[in-house]
Amino acid sequence: MNDPIMIVGAGLSGLHAASLLTSRGIPCQVLESRDRLGGRILSETVKGRADLGTFDLGPTWFWPQHEPLISRLVRELGLGTFDQHAQGAVLLERGQHQPAERHSLPKESMQQSVRLAGGVAPLIEAVAATLPPGTVELSTTVKEIVKNEDGTLLLKTERADGKVKHRQGKAVILALPPRMIVSAITFRPDLPEKVIKSLQDKPTWMAGQAKALAIYETPFWREQGLSGQVMSWAGPLQEIHDASPDTGGAALFGFFGRSAAERQELGPTRLRQEVVAQLNRLFGPGAKEPIAFLYKDWSRDSHTAVDADAVPLTAFPIYGPPTLPDVWNKKIAFAGTETSVQHGGHLEGALHAAVRAVSEVTAS
């Protein structure tokens, strides 16, 4: 029986792994616990105002000058791109009661990032379109992975409606955050403690963060000679950028300086009030009444974050795949951006991890 290679997770890494296997004629199946594709890639429109464009609540940029895999994939899929707006002065806010400082940075001091027309979601849709119908099954959670005596793997899965099903696979690619693997899946035989510790020591990228977007009709800050970029010590947003789409409306987005616990205590309504107040003091009365406000707290996403991810990062994590014992070698491979040695946390890292994982499970 030609059992498929099972892939757990339908984010960019899992879908790219499936696409690579499919291109080589190797059967595979992707299981995703969410009811949608994309994982941490999440692009949304304003309800009733699709004309304003699409806005990313997850990954937003890539850097073609040193990220070749994502650049090549975007070209091969025929997706449109545009440069992240960075022209104009940058603001530095030291305190709520101090005027923001205006700085003009040398052009060569900033690397040009690129965004996808229509948001990052079209990338997910395009990769998924390379797969045969029925390859991806949504709302399906993998609960247990058992290695049989004959070397095949048995996966116990549970649907959103509670229906349990056992599936047999030749190998498994785990394309989900390492900490989610430890918290959500049981292995038989058990994974060694050093492997579990390696997975637990890899913080989930963005899992402790939240992203806020204030949407407007036009990018009025550009008329003031501002890039939209801000670094703030006052908050609540500590980093702000121009998030205007390629067509439609305009937007400013930011990452919070406050911890997950502080955000939860304040709640979305109070956070929105504080964010809009900050944008008003930085950019003037044009920012006071956004058309819409989008907010995504990844620390509250049960498919992304575990309790340990609520602890703020103080340094860039050390990412890469753990070393498996012989009993699981070539039967399990770890994908997902946190398992990439190169560009961990980026879209590029997700692709690197997919390429490596496919190579590992097909090595024999």
From TrEMBL:
One example GO MF annotation: oxidoreductase activity
Using the record's annotation, list all stretches that form the Amine oxidase domain: 12-108, 110-361
Segments spanning the bilayer are none
Taxonomically, the superkingdom here is: Bacteria
Pfam assignment, any one: Amino_oxidase
> Which family is this protein grouped under?
Belongs to the flavin monoamine oxidase family.
Q: What is this protein identified as?
A: Monoamine oxidase
